[in-house]
Amino acid sequence: MVLLLTGPVALGLAGTLLPAFGYLPALGAEHLSLAPLRSVLATPGIVQSIGLSLGTGLAATALSLAIVIAFTAAWHDTRAFARLRRLISPLLAVPHAAAAFGLAFLIAPSGFLMRLVSPWATGFDRPPDLLVVNDPYGLAMTAGLVVKEVPFLFLMTLAALPQTDGARLSRVAENLGYGKTTAWLKAVFPLVYAQIRLPVLAVLAYSTSVVDVALILGPTTPAPLAPRILAWMGDPDLSLRLKAAAGALVQLALSGAAIGLWIVMERVLQRSGAAWATAGARGARDRGVRLAGLAAMALVAGTAVTALALLALWSVAGPWRFPDALPGSLTVGHWTAAAPLVALPLLTTLLIGGPVCLTAAALSAAVLDMRTRSGRRGPSRARVLLFMPLLVPQIAFLLGLQVLFLTLRLDASFGAVAVAHLVFVLPYVFLSLADPWDALDPRYRQVALTLGASESRTFWLVRLPLLLRAVLTAAAIGFAVSVAQYLPTVLIGGGRFPTVTTESVALASGGSRPLIAVHAVLQMLLPLAGFMAATAIPALLFRNRQTLKAVS
């Protein structure tokens, strides 16, 4: 499985490196040269593009982590924590593009927020000429990333807490006179951060190289670096493929520099944090910090839920003129009109996502079962390799992977797109399945083996039924990841495999809001259907086996 994850990344980087230095015989470029890199660096606005990618990526990652840590530190083991946990967890399944469209519908000059305060508070009877979405500083893009990355980092933090004995450590610190927030930050946070460090770096790598969110919410004059690379790759002038490869190399260096800068900040904060932790300040008066943490998390959750509700409303809205807060009527006409347009993308999404998520679940279960039989958890560096496709910018190796598939005459094929999706789906499926798998009482297996069952029979008749819900939930997570894939589908598929995500992003530049909303709602409904199936199938299979139903 490690080879399946690292192989495409390594081959893709190799396939990007040679064209980046001017070597691509298929285009007649047979001599190494720095000309492609010079061309990238001479592009007007390239410095601003690099700065936008770096600034928005660092800001989105830092804000997301700060919100998660502040809320967790101040409100763990409370009812508010449990309620927001139930509200935020489902947001992880929402694709980035759908969340970005929902946010755009919320904050645009003609969006819902402006409608709520117009004209009685603003005096506007028509949308103001304000550049909110696609603003030149990337603020809307940063907000869109925060709305999506907070749920991810929050769930990673929740998964890490049981491994740190955080509840006991926090209680001990509180009994020593520390405030609730200070106790958690001093006693638990260092242990939690060690567990979530790789996911944080993955968020940083993604945020500095994101394409779909940048196309929907990001600046356009100039755009961040990754969308410009994609434009060069799709240009009819084939000589720009060399420039695109060089741009991908610059993107790799940019994301690497962002990670390096983050590590430097970690060390600085580690030293100052150690001094603060040993200074003895109890921080008992932390009401302001607690309220700020709750407000920030509630704002993210409320923004996400409102944005998604707006998508659903726009998909059935009749005439909705500014500054009306709500549409004058509701209609299903947008859905019936869009049905012929979404039929093929919907089918393609299912045909790619279904086999990919099931394959990822099967591979993960097989690897975890082999690990159970051997009794070894594997070296810690294996976890780094597992995150490799998430730590390397997609556009940095997908361009090279496209060249490789082109050389093998596998370009723009269904199998190539499925393999590209699998590279990104497999880490999420394995990580989501590993904890439930390891948490299963080992005595079930020991009893089965003692009764004479083979390892294979024990797997099929004992472990798999007990873990069926976890396996199907992991597969549903994988399906949600596959539905959200934009860049692998566009680059490896050569534009021949339209999905609901690629079609919705294509509408960002000028599609009607109801049509965009229909595509975005489909993006949300598909993962939801996957999770519903993951819940319903075990319930149906084990409806007469209450104990097994409870365990699974």
From TrEMBL:
Subcellular location: Cell membrane
Residues of the ABC transmembrane type-1 domain: 46-263, 346-534
Any single Gene Ontology cellular-component annotation: plasma membrane
Record InterPro entries: MetI-like, MetI-like_sf
SUPFAM superfamilies: MetI-like
Chief localisation class: membrane
A matching Pfam family: BPD_transp_1
Topology of the protein relative to the lipid bilayer: Multi-pass membrane protein
Chain segments annotated as transmembrane: 46-75, 87-117, 137-161, 198-220, 240-264, 291-317, 337-363, 384-406, 412-434, 466-487, 516-542
Entry's Gene Ontology BP terms: transmembrane transport
Keyword set includes Transmembrane helix: yes
Domain of life assignment: Bacteria
UniProt keyword annotations, A-Z: Cell membrane, Membrane, Transmembrane, Transmembrane helix, Transport
Similarity comment text for this entry: Belongs to the binding-protein-dependent transport system permease family.
Protein's name in the database: ABC-type spermidine/putrescine transport system permease component II-like protein
Species: Polymorphum gilvum (strain LMG 25793 / CGMCC 1.9160 / SL003B-26A1)
